[in-house]
Design brief:
Shape of chain B: globular
Number of strands of chain B: 23
Helix content of chain A: 25-40%
Strand content of chain A: 25-35%
Low-confidence stretches of chain B: 455-459, 461-466
Structural class of chain A: alpha+beta
Largest sheet of chain B: 5 strands, parallel
Oligomer: heterodimer
CATH class of the largest domain in chain A: Alpha Beta
Mean pLDDT of chain A: 95
CATH topology of the largest domain in chain B: FAD/NAD(P)-binding domain
Low-confidence stretches of chain A: 372-379
Number of strands of chain A: 21
Strand order of the largest sheet of chain B: 3-2-1-7-20
Strand content of chain B: 15-25%
Largest interface: A-B, 43 and 36 residues
CATH topology of the largest domain in chain A: FAD/NAD(P)-binding domain
Radius of gyration of chain A: 21 Å
Mean pLDDT of chain B: 94
Distance between the termini of chain B: 29 Å
């Protein structure tokens, strides 16, 4: 059974980036086909921690992050679902004087971006946020928050579908070539698709498509490791992070606490992964040391997923350096959730106008391949 | 003895006990871990403290088997390691994480026999979460382990041999059994005639139980539909339809179950391949007649692999142990293999008959009302699930979980998963096998945050003190 589709834009990968781009492109009146090898929002977009956080991002990400920041409170109007977004604030803890100095330095470095960071000391951190454990101080970003990752990307994809995008799930792209003024794609299920433009938002699977156009990238896979408690009485009103990493935690309205940290391991099929038992236990112990409210809690489930990570921690966002009409957006390195809705708008501008109002030069795919014809390079 | 690590047996019911026994007899020293505080599994469960009830009182017609199994396992005490009250919550790459005695033990094993048993299968009906409603298994545990009944006037609802067995056990214990409501039409019981030549003892025992129940005034209703459990703060009444008429009965306790479902999470964590089984209407780990799974060194036995009953579980446990011995290059009782496999094949045919006589009412999923809770841990109603399916164009069970929270709570879908799959299949006009199965993640049951770890995997030598 063959099926032919012709559209303005084919988007490969129905995560939050691809789905929000699809919706934005439909808003511009372009015809869109969104293809996912599995189900929209089922990979990194759906299995991340759910932090909606600007604090801690490198300055080059902040313009994009601020653009996304304006979108999150409008989700209900935009996609028909609030995604359980909560502007709870994000509190980044310092375990040592050196970590505190690092938080202070960050606050100075990003002062022009309007994050409204508050540096607070040990006593205030304890009193205001109910923390136990050895904390020197913290940096608070009141405008940051959290949301439910399982819902947001799927809701963007559903909204794109309602807006007229063709959303094809369980349709892995098996071939993609530039032909004439556009592209020809083949996808499983006998789908043959022609499109003027292509967005490569295939997450941990994006490198193969970049490679196909002579743009090899050093994409690595990482596997987050999350622990969820049974519903508990409210004790944690803010989204918690830690300078230098190691642990992050938030409590959802239903009462469950999500605690992340460490890394999972892939299964024999590396598209799937699980947390490590000892890693999860270590995180649980660290969390119980930090919050009295967790000392008697039970973990009811773990989760993991597959994230695409770049060596410098920055994503690839922007036009292909080899192929007109191709735009990349992947490699969000475990920090894509908050900025993704902004990336979707940027991608739509790039497709329609060839440029965007948001600075994205730092994310060029050229940074890995200064000579754009380095297709034969090994990784 | 070799330097190889000990085999690990998970579950100390009939399958696990027999497996352990066969390993011990071959000179190995297995570690047996079990969640219960005493061996026996569900069917041969022992009271937490000895009381004055005899084996006959506890196990009825199965007393002789129970006594033989318990004595046999107790006699092995010096030759195996046995950890009761131990939860194996994670498995990976030949290492098990076991929560026991307040701590976590990481145990390297060489050879794994999963004899994880089964729990009740249920479909939601209005009122199924009211206090006073128990699964048939829970109803039986109350009696067997605690020596108490779930109510003063009890109604039993569902299908399967367990329905009549537990009702009869309650009757024998002196509880008023108001009625047995069988979801299958009476005509289906004609299949039992086919079972007579295969397993006359089982069929006759069942018929005797039904007869005794009726003689003592318990009404047995067949072909019951549209069950509704009513009550303000707890069970007060059961309402149902039968041959086009509404009926009701006052009661204060309800035992409810629609057959059994295998506990397969550990097989999933262990990486075993699964296939859809039409008889159990569930995804089950693949295994051959010996109990070998798709993963070398991992064996499956008992109701945790496929529902076949306690007698078959004993044989499957022993058979799996023999396979483990053979694979390890150890001498084993090869002469037993043919007899065990013959018995298992016969049990399988008996199971076909029982399944025909006590069919699972999968079609109930059509009539689950929107306001009925589907997932009781996360409090998700059938209507919310249906809305999620429609709004997000869902076709696959893990996506339904991700969007609706079904199966995300304490039970991890062990209770609601089967019903959610039926509902999704119904709403999307797909075959039940096409909606997929919930992927397992550790922990298979809740574990405390303060579980203390030991860093290095180790081989167990002695059971930890409790």
């Amino acid at each position: 059974m063959r099926r032919r589709i012709d559209c303005d834009v084919a988007i490969v990968g129905g995560g939050l980036v691809g789905s929000s781009a699809a919706l934005a492109l439909r808003g511009m009146g372009l015809t869109v086909t969104l293809l996912d090898k599995g189900f929209c929002g089922a990979q990194a977009s759906g299995v991340n921690y759910g932090g909606v956080r600007r604090q801690g991002r490198p300055p080059e990400q902040l313009p994009l992050s601020q653009r996304a920041h304006a979108i999150w409170p409008r989700l209900k109007a935009l996609i028909g679902h609030d995604g359980e977004f909560l502007r709870s604030g994000h509190l980044k803890l310092a375990r040592s004087e050196a970590d505190m100095a690092s938080l202070e330095a960050y606050a100075i470095r990003v002062v022009g971006f309007g994050l409204g960071l508050e540096l607070i000391g040990h006593n205030e951190a304890r009193q205001r946020f109910g923390l136990a454990g050895d904390i020197v101080g913290a940096s608070f970003c009141p405008g940051d928050g959290q949301a439910n990752p399982r819902l947001v990307a799927s809701a963007f994809a559903a909204a794109a579908r309602r807006a007229g995008a063709e959303v094809l799930e369980t349709a892995p792209v098996t071939g993609i070539v530039r032909r004439g003024e556009g592209f020809v794609l083949e996808a499983q299920g006998g789908i043959e698709l022609t499109a003027r433009s292509v967005v490569n938002s295939a997450g941990a699977w994006a490198d193969q498509f970049a490679q196909a156009f002579g743009e090899p990238v050093p994409l690595m896979r990482t596997y987050p490791s999350m622990v969820v408690t049974e519903p508990l009485d409210p004790f944690l009103a803010v989204n918690i992070g830690m300078e230098g990493g190691g642990i992050y935690a938030r409590q959802v309205a239903r009462g469950n606490c999500v605690v992340g940290g460490e890394r999972g391991l892939p299964l024999p099929d590396p598209d799937f992964s699980r947390p490590r038992g000892e890693g999860a236990l270590a995180i649980m112990q660290r969390a119980a040391g930090l919050f009295d409210g967790l000392r008697h809690a039970h973990a009811i489930r773990f989760w993991s997923g597959t994230e695409a990570t770049m060596p410098d921690g920055n994503p690839v966002i922007g036009p292909s350096s080899t192929t007109p009409g191709l735009v990349h957006a992947f490699g969000f390195s475990g920090a894509g959730f908050q900025i993704a809705p902004g990336v979707g708008e940027v991608l739509a501008e790039l497709v329609r106008d060839g440029r965007t109002t948001t600075p994205i030069d730092a994310f060029s795919i050229n940074r890995f391949n200064p000579v754009s014809s380095a297709a034969g390079d090994s990784r | 003895m070799s330097e190889r690590a000990a085999p690990l047996v998970v579950g100390a019911g009939p399958a696990g006990m027999r497996a352990a026994q066969a390993l011990v007899e071959a000179g190995l020293r297995p570690l047996v871990v079990d969640e219960a505080q005493a061996s026996g599994g569900q069917i041969y469960r022992q009271p937490p403290q000895g009381d004055d009830r005899s084996a006959d009182a506890l196990y009825g017609s199965e007393a002789a088997k129970a006594v033989r199994l318990h004595r046999g396992f107790a006699a092995l005490a010096d030759r195996l390691d046995y950890w009761p009250r131990a939860l194996l919550w994670n498995l990976r790459d030949g290492v098990a994480d076991i929560a026991v005695g307040g701590g976590n033990r990481r145990v390297a094993y060489d050879g794994l026999i999963l004899a994880t048993g089964a729990t009740d299968r249920v479909l939601p009906v209005p009122g199924w979460t009211l206090p006073g409603v128990f699964t048939l298994g829970g109803t039986q545990i109350a009696l067997k382990a605690q020596g108490c009944a779930i109510g003063r006037r009890v109604v039993f609802i569902g299908c399967g041999p367990l329905l009549y067995l537990v009702a009869w056990q309650y009757l024998k214990a002196g509880v008023a059994v108001a009625a047995v409501l069988d979801t299958a039409p009476l005509a289906r019981k004609l299949h039992l005639l086919r079972g007579m030549p295969l397993a006359p003892a089982i069929v006759l025992r069942g018929l005797r139980m039904a007869a005794e129940l009726q003689l003592r005034g318990t009404a047995i209703h067949h072909g019951v539909t549209d069950i509704r459990i009513e009550g303000r703060t707890r069970v007060e009444r059961i309402v149902w339809r039968q041959r086009g008429r509404d009926k009701s009965l006052a009661c204060d306790g309800i035992g409810y179950g629609l057959g059994l479902r295998p506990e397969t999470q550990l097989a999933d964590l262990a990486g075993c391949a699964f296939r859809f089984d039409r008889r159990d209407r569930a995804w089950l780990p693949e295994r051959d007649v010996s109990g070998r799974s798709s993963v070398p060194g991992i064996y499956l036995a008992g109701d945790g692999a496929r529902i076949a009953g306690a007698d078959a579980a004993e044989r499957a446990g022993e058979r799996a142990a023999l396979a483990l011995l053979e694979d390890r290059g150890l001498p084993y009782a090869a002469s037993r293999v043919a007899a065990l496999e013959r018995d298992l094949a016969r049990s399988d045919r008996v199971r076909d008959v029982l399944d025909a006589a006590f069919p699972y009412p999968a079609h109930w999923s059509r009539q689950i009302a929107d306001d009925t809770l589907l997932c009781r841990c996360e409090e998700v109603s059938a209507g919310e699930a249906r809305r999620a399916i429609a709004e997000f164009s869902l076709t696959e069970l893990n996506r339904l979980k991700a969007i609706s929270r079904i199966g995300m709570g304490r039970c991890q879908g062990r209770v609601c998963g089967a019903a959610a799959a039926e509902l999704l299949a119904r709403e999307t006009a797909q075959d039940i096998a096409a909606v997929g199965r919930l992927r397992t993640q550790a922990p298979v049951k809740p574990i405390p945050f303060t579980l203390t770890t030991s860093n290095e995997p180790h081989e167990p030598r002695h059971a930890p003190a409790h």
